[in-house]
Write a structure and sequence with these properties.
The chain is an alpha+beta fold. The protein has a domain of 122 residues. 30% of the residues lie in helices and 40% in strands. It contains one helix and seven strands. The longest helix has 54 residues. It is rod-shaped, with a radius of gyration of 31 Å. 14% of the residues are buried.
Length: 182
């Protein structure tokens, strides 16, 4: 009788090496994709944080501009808006009505150039940073005759109709915001 040789089952060394190479390639590709995903997520979080900072800063300015009196005959101290430009550093000063001060007046100062800071008579000697030095800010006042000026009052008879703010930042690019003045 003839004996039938039993066939061994299992994988050869070549098959194991091919399987390990395929697994190594898939692992490297998966790592690169995951790493790119983490980098994209980090950039998205930085951009999102920049936009949140801008929204908060815009809201602060909007609140302060709302404190300017509307010329409708109500009894309020006279308010004013002044814009000064000193060699690249601008100061926007708002004289507003403030019920929290005994004399009813407050002066709010926004200092712009490399970054933006805010100060008030309510908190003497304190300056609060609203945007960091990586942001470049420029103010302009839009007049009745359509001109934009970087200093207000400018000595003309024109009325200030709007306030323009231009912001250049690393994560956001250039953003321009307009506020109509009372």
């Amino acid at each position: 009788m003839k004996r039938v040789a039993a066939r061994q089952s299992g994988m050869t060394l070549i098959e194991i090496l091919v399987a390990m190479c395929i697994l190594a390639i898939l692992s490297v590709l998966g790592y690169k994709a995951f790493s790119a995903l983490l980098i994209s997520r980090e950039r998205l979080m930085e951009t999102s944080a920049s936009w949140v900072d801008l929204a908060r800063m815009f809201r602060r300015i909007e609140t302060d501009l709302d404190a300017l009196p509307v010329p409708d005959g109500r009894e309020r101290p006279p308010a004013s808006l002044r814009l000064q430009d000193d060699a690249g550093t601008q100061r926007l000063m708002l004289s507003v009505f403030s019920p929290s001060r005994p004399d009813g007046k407050d002066v709010l100062v926004y200092q712009a150039g490399a970054g933006l800071s805010w100060s008030s008579l309510r908190v003497p000697g304190e300056r609060f940073d609203l945007l960091g030095a990586e942001y470049r800010i420029r103010w302009q006042v839009l007049l009745d005759d359509g001109r934009r000026v970087a200093v207000w009052p400018d000595g003309s008879d024109n009325e200030a109709r709007a306030l323009e703010m231009r912001i250049d930042g690393p994560a956001i690019g250039a953003v321009t915001r307009l506020w109509s003045l009372p």
